[in-house]
């Protein structure tokens, strides 16, 4: 028979795993799949929690489960508010959307001096393509940047912890050339890039291998 301590650890692991699944499901719904799944965003990219819980993929969860995941998410991916008129609780993703959201709360960045270090995290396998073609929004609305080094205080999101390559952006030059940048509620810097959704390598100030600390060559072979 399992000890009380073993049962407690088993229960903790279950709930942690369950919360991870819930977080990933919410990310899909709120960033990418709402319309496909039959939902319509309210202004600001919100969905009502009581409606979300009727969806087949979330029917085993409760509002308390969702609020716990929002509160405990280390990257603060989600925000919840109470509707002033109805009292209903609503939830949204703070960033990472691949669908258009009306009036998503993003603050324009005007002065580069506000963020002297702006970094995009990626992987070695992607670097050669990025070095020649630039950063792309891919299937999302924005390219994501962290407002500082990954280990800096206050930098909670903007790149994955497993990123191997750090691309430092010359924000001043990019702003001077007319590229737009915004700050999300969870402190992620976002840019739609140019008209093609690209940020050219000419705006990279340096690129570092995160594991070795070595600089990577910005020049292409062409």
TrEMBL record:
It comes from the Eukaryota. GO terms for molecular function: tRNA 2'-phosphotransferase activity. Pfam families: PTS_2-RNA. InterPro entries: Ptrans_KptA/Tpt1, RNA_2'-PTrans_C, RNA_2'-PTrans_N. It is an enzyme of class 2 (transferase). Keywords: NAD, Transferase. It catalyses: 2'-phospho-[ligated tRNA] + NAD(+) = mature tRNA + ADP-alpha-D-ribose 1'',2''-cyclic phosphate + nicotinamide. Its EC number is 2.7.1.160. GO terms for biological process: tRNA splicing, via endonucleolytic cleavage and ligation. Belongs to the KptA/TPT1 family. Catalyzes the last step of tRNA splicing, the transfer of the splice junction 2'-phosphate from ligated tRNA to NAD to produce ADP-ribose 1''-2'' cyclic phosphate. This is 2'-phosphotransferase.
């Amino acid at each position: 028979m399992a000890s009380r301590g073993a049962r407690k650890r088993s229960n903790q692991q279950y709930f942690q795993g369950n919360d991870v699944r819930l977080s990933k499901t919410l990310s899909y719904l709120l960033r990418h799949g709402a319309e496909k799944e039959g939902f319509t965003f309210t202004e600001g990219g919100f969905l009502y929690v009581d409606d979300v819980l009727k969806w087949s993929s979330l029917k085993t969860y409760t509002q308390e489960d969702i609020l716990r995941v929002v509160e405990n998410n280390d990257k603060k991916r989600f925000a919840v508010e109470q509707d002033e008129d109805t009292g209903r609780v609503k939830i949204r993703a703070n960033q990472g959307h691949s669908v258009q959201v009306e009036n998503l709360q993003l603050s324009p960045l005007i002065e580069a001096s506000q963020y002297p270090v702006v970094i995009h995290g990626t992987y070695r396998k992607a670097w050669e393509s990025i070095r020649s073609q630039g950063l792309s929004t891919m299937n999302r609305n924005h390219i994501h940047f962290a407002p500082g080094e990954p280990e800096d205080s206050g930098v909670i999101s903007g790149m994955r912890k497993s990123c191997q390559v750090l691309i430092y952006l010359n924000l001043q030059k990019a702003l001077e050339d007319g590229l737009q940048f915004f700050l999300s509620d969870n402190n992620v810097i976002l840019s739609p890039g140019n008209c093609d959704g690209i940020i050219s390598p000419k705006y990279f100030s340096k690129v570092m291998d995160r594991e070795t600390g070595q600089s990577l060559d910005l020049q292409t072979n062409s």
